[in-house]
Structures are given as structure tokens and as C-alpha cells.
Amino acid sequence: MEHTPRRPGPGEARVRVHAVGICDRDRDLYLGRGRVPYARYPVTPGHEWSGTVTAVGEGAPASLIGRKVVGEGLRNCETCAPCRDGETHLCAAGRGETGFTLPGAMAPTLVLPVRLLHTLAPDADLTAAAFLEPAACAAAAVLKARPLPGSRVAVIGAGTLGLLTAQLLGAFSPDELTVVGASPGRADLSRRFGATDHRTWDRASGLADLDAVIDTAGTTSSARAATSFLRPGGRLVLAGTPAQEAERLDPAGIVGRQLSIGTAFGASSGAWSYAVRAFSAGRLTPLGLLTHRLGIDEFGRAMELTGSGDPRVGKVLLRP
């Protein structure tokens, strides 16, 4: 469709989109799958993006014009109890989200409240910055896991979310950092992102006595397997959207071994700030995950690549 840039309203900014990433939720949105029941059609997709501010509305600082930015997708009220507790992604005022209920970034420009923007350095690589939305989700999981230097940790899943999680965990100097994935072809990339070991599922049974495990895969058996990897008192964080038919956990075993289980879905403003700081400090370098850069007119091919299951396909970015 033809795109007409919208004039930013009070407290809003208009961004020229540089790049927008695609994830499984975008594909679910495209296919009309039930995993995004909150979507409102018709909608312009795109919630992982980077760009440059080109205009601001009344009350927004003019100094933002020309700044490189990324932005949070979930619209929060800032006044409900979860927002006041810092859990802005759990806002009780209703779900509004860029690319799902509100116009997203698969367009030349995007308008959103300036309070959701995170500014980047003038020399920031905007292509790499387009990974900061999944990186914020990874940061939320890492903060829940509370890693300590010298600990033994693992990440289940060697996709974009899993390897960004591994890289953020690596900043805490763990003694061991294992990535468990489905394909042996991800071993080298996992090590580039900080893993000391990569194991496929047929070699994962030997993992034990870990301090923390983050499950980014959400397969039918990954959460249950993760509990067996942990030491007594260990911590499990579920960060992948679980499969509907996932195996149930063992409450008696969890209580008896005093395991702690947390969840991370989406990212609070604090997790976003953490990811942006890690990116700005050079501790988060996601470009190794990028395998395809396509024009916006290749949206159909991008959807096919994202759902192909081909281990050679990493992150797909569109350039509006």
C-alpha cells in the first residue's frame, strides 16, 4: 500500500525506519494463528525496528530530531500498579502494541510516544540496533536468572533469542555457559556468542548441577528437561512461548529440590534500558545472527524463510 507519513501528535515522534526484524509472532500474525489473539486487523506489522527521528509533536523535545533510536512496543499507562512497580510490560490498562494492535515498522515511517524511545549514540549501527527488541526480551530473562560470576549456566535454544541471551549471560563471566540446540550447525555460532559448550539434545542428558537455565525454545519437552539440569536450589527461567502440548512439570520434584521458576515474556522499560546499555558498551554484538536483508517488497519471501526451519536461516531483516 502507499504510505502517507502521519504528523506526530502531542508527545509523539515520527521515525524514519531503517530496518525491521521478523520473528515467529510476525509470522503468526500473517497466518492468522491463535498465538497472537490480541491482534487487531488490519494492521501494519513490525515490532523489532531501528530508525532516526525526523519530526516531533507538541511537548516533545526538539533535540530528538536527527537522533538514532529504538523503541518499546507495548504502550503502558505509567499509573497502574504494575507500571508503578516497574513492570511496564504488564500494564493493567489494556494491551496496545506496535505492529499488532497499532501501526508497526514495516513502513517508511513510524509514529509513537517519545517516552517509549531509547536513544543511541550518533555512530550506532542501525542495522545491528534492529535486534534490540529481542535483546530486551533476552535481558528480561537474564535479569530473572540472576547469574553470578563463576556460575554454571545454560540456555536452551540456539535461535535469535537464545544466542542473544547467551551473549548477555557471558557478560557475567560464568565458569560454564552451555547452549542446547536442535542443530549441530549452530555450534560455532553459539561459541561466537559466548558459549563454552554447545550440545544437541542427544548429548544434553549429561548436563547436571547447573545454577541457572534459561529456556528460550519453548518446545514440548524443554522446560521439563531443564529442571533435570539444575542443582538443588537452582533457577529456571521460561522465556520461550511454550508449546500447547508441553509436558507438565513435576511439582513434587520442584518443591523437594527447592527450584525457583520464573518467567519472562516481553520486556519492561528496565530490561530495555539494560539491553541498550549493553549494546552501547559493545557487550551485545548481534550482527552475527543476520543472514538475510530484504526489501519490503520481499515480505512474502521473508515469511517463507522465517518459517522454513532451515538451520542456515538466521535473522531476516526488511528495509522499508
In words, what does this structure look like?
The chain has helices spanning 24-31, 81-84, 126-129, 132-145, 160-170, 187-192, 222-229, 251-256, 269-280, 299-306; strands at 12-21, 48-56, 68-71, 109-113, 117-119, 152-156, 176-181, 197-200, 210-215, 230-238, 260-263, 290-295, 315-319. It is of the alpha/beta class. The chain folds into two domains: 12-130 and 285-319, Quinone Oxidoreductase, Chain A, domain 1, CATH 3.90.180; 137-263, Rossmann fold (3-Layer(aba) Sandwich), CATH 3.40.50. Strands 1, 2, 3, 4, 5, 12 and 13 form a seven-stranded mixed sheet that branches. The protein has a six-stranded parallel sheet with strand order 8-7-6-9-10-11. Helix 4 packs across helix 5 (160-170) and helix 4 (132-145) packs across helix 9. It is globular, with a radius of gyration of 19 Å. 44% of the residues are buried. The model has no long low-confidence stretch (mean pLDDT 95).
Mean pLDDT: 95
Could you list the spans in which at least 5 consecutive residues all have pLDDT below 50?
none
Series of H and E elements: EHEEHEEHHEHEHEEHEHEHEHE
What's the number of helices?
Answer: 10
Full CATH superfamily name of the largest domain: Medium-chain alcohol dehydrogenases, catalytic domain
Number of E strands: 13
Q: What would CATH call the architecture of the largest domain?
A: Alpha-Beta Complex
Helix content: 25-40%
How is the biggest beta sheet arranged?
A: 7 strands, mixed
Shape: globular
Secondary-structure-derived class: alpha/beta
Estimated share of beta-strand residues = 15-25%
What is the total domain count? 2
Which fold name is given in CATH as the topology of the largest domain? Quinone Oxidoreductase, Chain A, domain 1
Calculate Rg over CA atoms. 19 Å
